[in-house]
Structure formats: structure tokens, C-alpha cells
Amino acid sequence: MGQQGAATRGPLFTARSRRAPILLLRRGFRHGLFRPPAAGAGPGLQAPGAHDRAPMEQLYREGRPIVLRGWLDLRGAVVRAQIERSRREFDRLRGGAEFGPQLARRLAAGPARMVGCSEDVADPLEIEKVHLSLPGPGGEGLFAKLSWIADDERDLSLRIRFSFGLERALDWRRDARRSRAADRAALLAYPEGRVLAQHPRLLRLLGRLCGGEVRLSERILYNNAPGGGASFHHDAEPGQLGVLYGQFLGRTAWLALPRAELAQEIARLAPNRALARDAFRLLEHPDEPRLERLLNRDRRLTRALVARGALIVLGRGDALVLPSPSREVCAWHAVFALGKRPSLAHSYGIFRLR
Q1: Which domain holds residue 204?
Q2: Measured CA distances, 349 to 179, 273, 345 (Å)
Q3: Which one of 48, 258, 310, 351 is CB 3.0 to 4.6 Å from 63, fit for a cystine?
Q4: pTM for the whole thing?
């Protein structure tokens, strides 16, 4: 795949620029030009809709996205330099540079150690997996995995995920100690993540929403390239209470809403009775061709979701909570990269601390 232009650090997102029309384009399909809804009166208050002024606890229980405008302090010289370094390195990776040596240089001064590299040739998205070890409990069998976001030549978006063990065996669901070791490795490699992972106010908020202290694990860095982004999905995995996403550079647009409301719009627009009748249940299988086409390549659905108030635009310094109180009540979401240059974001799964 060819080179892609580098992102640049821009001014904090202004109220006026938030309302400028945006083109939702992903992997060659134009969903349309839309004006984002006006922001609510405070963090987490999304307009329009009946939940405009609902408390965050209610938004969480209903599986609604919680928008935290400007919660991330990215003004310091150190964090700006860390973000810029990550941006440049993603550009090099997109141009064909090897991930292993790049990560080894990042970890050279700390306790984490690179023990090898591999590639799963059966996975069309995986580019390179770097295996790591870290002194202390659970520090063996860690990895950082560089992948494409989509199996599509038109999408140059990249991501780096920190985890451990065997992916196909879903080891990450069963060992919180090793998860915490992978979290430490992520911070050692990409220290700008402290802005999100060690944010006292954010952690207190998440504890309040989730009914107790949380840990932020299965950490992912996203480098969404123009015309790319994630298709509709959810993150209501066993034991996972949601996702915390922080926008460090650039902008992204989201369609995000509870599963039941997405199912209502699918039922209304479904091409056949079976899909209309069973839309909520069939969302367990979003890759089914007819459903996948409706979810990700149907302008009528996009327009209907925007009319519901499901469109969110995040700029530098914004954070987003995508709740997953259960598989039935969770925030389904799709992502669109905006602008002419790749963005940078960190995304962490939310789990109970104990």
C-alpha cells in the first residue's frame, strides 16, 4: 500500500468547527454530507433526543454514548512531543517500515524486553506481532500487534493492540494479572496514553458509572486514515463494561446509539420481513451479507441515524465512553476518519478492577 500524508497538530476543536458540514466517506462509499447536532449543555449531554439532559448514569444504563468535550489536557510540551513521535512512526509503518525495531527502540530504556516477532498469515489484517516480556507478575507472553483496520486496499488505517497469550483461545478474558502487565507495557511504549489511563476525573467517573473501580485494558492505538474507519460493531465482550476512547490528533465522526434503537431503524428499512421481524436478534451476526450491507452501505440508514442524534464528531482533546452494561444494552458504533491526514487516538476496554 502506498504512502499516506502525515497528520499535523491543529488547534483545539472550536464550537463553530464542530457544526461545519462533514462528509461521511468510508472505503469508497459516500454516506452523505451532514451537519453535526449542536452539543448539549455539558459533558455527556448529546443532542437532539429525549436524553439531552439525562445524567451520565442514565446514559450508561441505556447504552448511550457519553461525550466528554475537551477532557484531555494535551497542552504540555512533553505530551505533544510524544504524540508527534507516534504520528511520525505510524506514517513510517504505513510506508512499509518494520514494527519490531521501532518498538524495540521505544522500550530500550525500560524494563520491558522484546523477545521476538511473528505474523499470523491466516489473518489478512495482521502485519506484525511483537512478543514482549516484563518483570513482575504476569509479565510473560505479552504482545503488541500491528494490524490494518480493514481488509480493503482503499483503507490505510492502522492500529496497535497490546494484549497477551493466545488470541484465538481468548486468553485475555481470563487473566486480569496478565492484562495489567500488558497495560504496563502499553504505557512504557506509548507514554502519551497516561493522559487517558491516569486521568483522575475520568477514572472517578468510570467508577461511578460501573459501580466500582475499573481497570483500562486491551489498549489500542488507532491511526485512522482518510476514507477509513470501523464498520458497525459493539464491544460488549464478557466482562467488558465499555470502551474509553480519547482523540489525540485529528478528528473522527461516529454513529453511536443503543442496540435497540439501531434495531428499530434496521427493522424500518429492512428489505424483507424476516430481517425486519428479527433485527434485534440478528445483530448478533452483523457480518451476514444483507445486514452488513444495510449497516455499512445504506445511505437511508445513515440519514435516519443522524436524524436520531447518533452522529458525534470528536476533535483533539475529546473523550468518548461507549457503555456495555450488557450485550443486549450496549452502544453500537461505526467510525469515519475525517480530514486529509491520519488521526491518532487511544482506545481502552473498561473492566472491573477486581
Answers
A1: 15-352
A2: 11, 36, 14
A3: 258
A4: 0.90
